[in-house]
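ok trying this again, last paste got cut off
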Amino acid sequence: ASGSTTQDLFEQMGRLEGKLDEVMGRFSQLQRPAPAVVAVPGGPDPNQLYEQAVQDLTQGRYPLALPAFREYVARFPATDLADNAQYGVGECHFAQSRFDSAAVAYEAVETLDPQGDRVPAALWKLALSREKLGQAAESRRVLEDLVRRFPLSGEAQLAKDRLGKARTRGR
């Protein structure tokens, strides 16, 4: 039994070393000076760039996801996923407790696509960012705007709940 446990540990260590090598290789690419961002033929495939950034985000690799999302927005601002990529920028900052940068990123989602599917989520996270920054009045204004403009969204329900709790605390 101990032989198979040792073998399992060696196999697991091998897999982890492979993942570490992959991340370190990508990290070293980030350390190089960034070229001017220009959409050029033969550049990165938009879908691959976006999917890799999402994967990095969901796996907590924010230093890798953030520049990839930014590059996507800079290179492909007119695509359907540009607002999602901008939201990803906000998520990277929010996850690292950089709420001031997150707020700026979430505000930019609406600029890319005012009626985009990510706007309610961006407004919700903008309100949370403002709250974390101690900007209660601004957070409340954003929540009220969210409820008014997107009343049927799941985020509007969350906003209503939060606004209701704020009224209860205020009494």
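PB: full thing came through this time. The longest helix spans residues 2-31.
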